[in-house]
Amino acid sequence: MPGDITAYWTAYYDRVHHDGRPWLDYSNERVQAQSFALALEAAGPVSGRRCLDVGSGQGQFPKVLLALGATRVTAVELVAATVERCRAEAPAIDWRAGDAAAPASYEGLGTFEVVTALEVLQYVPFEATVGRLFSLVEPGGRLVGIVPNRACPLVSRPIERFEGRYGAALAADVTRTLAALPGVSQWTYRGLHFGKDQRVAPYAPSAWTTATDWAEAPNRFLFVATRP
User: Residue 213: how many CB atoms within 10 A of its CB?
Assistant: First the structure.
């Protein structure tokens, strides 16, 4: 991210992290919980695996990975003060302060069997960041991401609110980016639509697909890219 945008989001999330709302960008805690569950399903088994979570917010998802038996969990988060708090709360996790879009944030980390980027790709150059994260995936591993759909009417609100700083991605962006990843063996994604009846779960996920046409624009895309 350009320096001014990085500074903007750092200041913004420093405030958000102090407001007592643990679900951050999600609509509510139920949306966050289901998003985490869907991401874990896409990641596959994490027990015994090395995992990297990028854009970790207040650290809930890295803590879940550790609780599920990951042998190494590294978490990258933009707000340094939040990283310090998380480091004190869960010292078994390798917490790093860094910009998800900056190559320097990943220097010396090595590779991982599972890399996740949930609700962060709208703040960074999508194609370049996905490519960088996939380069950290070792053979047999996978990259999992959730990104807002720019074509969804609900997503237009934060785009307007943040005056172009908030990116999101179109289905065509996801398709083009994943298909072009060097060394990718398989990629697929699904749409996360808000269900008409949300008493059990907020989202009604679509089937996995590589198509770019949607009868109704999903709110989010959940994608997976794997190495052979």
Answer: 7
Helix, strand, coil abundance in the chain, percent, nearest 5: 35, 25, 40
What residue ranges do the domains of the chain occupy? 3-226
Task: Supply 85's token pair.
Answer: 């708090």
Taking the whole predicted model, whether its pTM rises above 0.90 is answered as yes
C-alpha pair distances (Å), 170 with each of 51, 131, 132, 173, 203? 27, 17, 19, 5, 19
With beta carbons less than 8 A apart as the criterion, state whether 80 and 105 touch. no
- Judge whether 111 and 73 are in contact, CB under 8 Å: no
Confidence of residue 94 (pLDDT cuts 50, 70, 90): very high
Q: Options 3.40.50.2000, 3.40.50.150, 3.60.10.10, 3.10.20.740; which CATH number does 3-226 get?
A: 3.40.50.150
Contact, 187 vs 130, CB < 8 A?
A: no
**Partner residues linked to 146 by β-bridges:** 118, 222
- Decide: residue 102, CB within 10 A, 0-12 exposed, 13-18 middle, 19+ buried: middle
